[in-house]
Amino acid sequence: MTQTPTAVSPDLSLSAIPALLAGEGLPEFAAITPDQVKKHIPVLLEDLHSSLGAIEGQLEEALAADQPLAWNTVMDPLHRLGERLRWSWGVVSHLNGVCNNTELREAHASQQAAVVAFGNRAGQSTVIHRALKRLNQQGGLDATQQRILAAELRDMELRGVGLEGEQRQAFNAASQELAELSTRFGNQVLDATNAWTLTLSDPAEVEGLPESLRGLLAEAARQKGEEEASAEAGPWLLGLDFPRYGPFLQYSRRRDLRERLYRAHVSRASGVGEDGSDNGPLIERILTLRQEQARRLGYANWAEVSLASKMAGSEAEVERLLEDLRQAAYPAAQRELDELRACAQRSGAPEAADLKPWDVSFWAERLRQERFELDSEALRPWFPLPQVLEGLFGLCDRLFGITIVAADGEAPLWHPDVRFFRVNDAADGQPLAAFYLDPYSRPGSKRGGAWMDECLVRQRRADGSPVLPVAYLVCNQSPPVGETPSLMTFAEVETLFHEFGHGLHHMLTTVERPQAAGINNVEWDAVELPSQFMENWCYDRATLLGMARQWQSGEPLPEAEFEKLLAARTFLGGAATLRQVHFALTDLKLHSEWAPESGVSPEGLRRRIAATTTVLEPLPEDAMLCSFSHIFAGGYAAGYYSYKWAEVLSADAFSAFEEVDLGNEEAIRATGRHFRDTVLSQGGSRHPAEVFEAFRGRPPSAEALIRHSGLAPA
Fold this sequence. Notes:
disordered N terminus; 5-stranded mixed sheet
């Protein structure tokens, strides 16, 4: 008999507890209001401080009496304490990303300092630090426990446990300020993105736009009060969120409007937009504080702090990878730009001699159609979201032996668009995990991009009962319009597969210790392995042709279109690689070389790097750093290179399937189970190099990535 997973069945005994303080089970999102955040987070923190004090007292007594320590009397109580805060503050942070509004922002900001202060206190507890060192010295731990303990000791050092007096006070004050600045940075990017709109009312202004985009722009206009707006007659509301911005640059024949849109996008949150927000001063302050924090901890710069917990051994090792990729990509990107100019010239376009950044996407689409007869917009009808999900879930069954079933109505939601699914083992029907899917763009309240986050982590309660993992999967793809479902671009399909890879890493772990379950304790530059690995399956014949069917007729994607997608896979691969190298090297150098006294602004340093990592010079008003949320409002500071580092791992992992023949179903299933039992199962319980070798049988090689990117020598 199949048992209902405790992770996705909230305990009814929690009903009397305020929703924000439940601490376990699925959150009651609708009940978690800004007022509750302001009222109950202080109550939670007061209780946590008291509980932490009690743990410290017990450990102090044990240390003084020279009593032996045990995992279940040290690490387990500390984890349960931290999990209460992770659960409650995690829900607030999640809602701040997907249901952002002024009241919630203010509530979040009002409690952030106190949350950071508690983290600092726990991370800087000398009693706990001594207890962990004693536990480590005693021995008798298994390999997973040793790795968890080593990581915790390292992280406590990075949180300033070794600092005292004024140094500790300064460190904690800087930590508080950095958290506040990070939140403010992200909010200002969202505000700047939302503040800029342009109403188009003349049909000539939407010339060249596909019907789906005109429908999306008309829908945006209706949401702003233009009740009669339609795809055919307008008006159409243009905006800077990617579902409107990206396709407009790709298809609009109005070069003047493309330029206007592009200039607005690259200058977001730089003080020139309609909302006036300026992240420039925040950037300098964040970088300065990080540099000061690094020196307090005994490191030369923040890059060294970041790399202390990464798979890469040194900044030099990262730079070697980036330089290898740059050398392969730069001449390819130059050739690609020349090809775009030639395409424009063949069309008699006046801009052919002086191609600008707002022309690149437009002529890239023309060249793609010319070279491959592939119209990416025309493929949308073959990728309605329900069918893409069916194909994705079928692939997961094929590779990993899991069954994914819709469970709508069985879990509280934060928005009507959100769906809920359960994950079961296909062999015996046993529940493994669950996940939420929030697929559509909501420019007014949802931050851009796509991400996976933890709702519940695999672990066991104090009474031994299991908690199964639950993931948040969030995308920002084109929403349904009227009776038409969400028709996805191929890029949106790849994004969904990418985020689902993160979700699989979180959900299919078999590690019982939560500190190393799923993505926990996985080095940041290896954590993208499963996500980038999953993207490769978008080009697998069985996977793609199995899910790509015309949403009205059910007609399968023609074989010729599939072949075009394969042929176009490495189209502009040089430019794509060089773009990532530019971002990664900029991030690394900002956190290793820039200083207030360096005599150059952060943007100035970025432009020096651009000289060898871009083939079109950035515009004077290009303020990309002001919206670079990954490193200033996310977790990628001095770690953006991780995308390329992990792509080496993911491409090599996928090549294991290529080597056994993608058409050999038995071998593919066996290799998929091996991937599940190593990469997806072992989480952070082992070093990623060991996990990779357990799957591949050897260390990683960059050969597959260079080949997949189309940069291998002919």
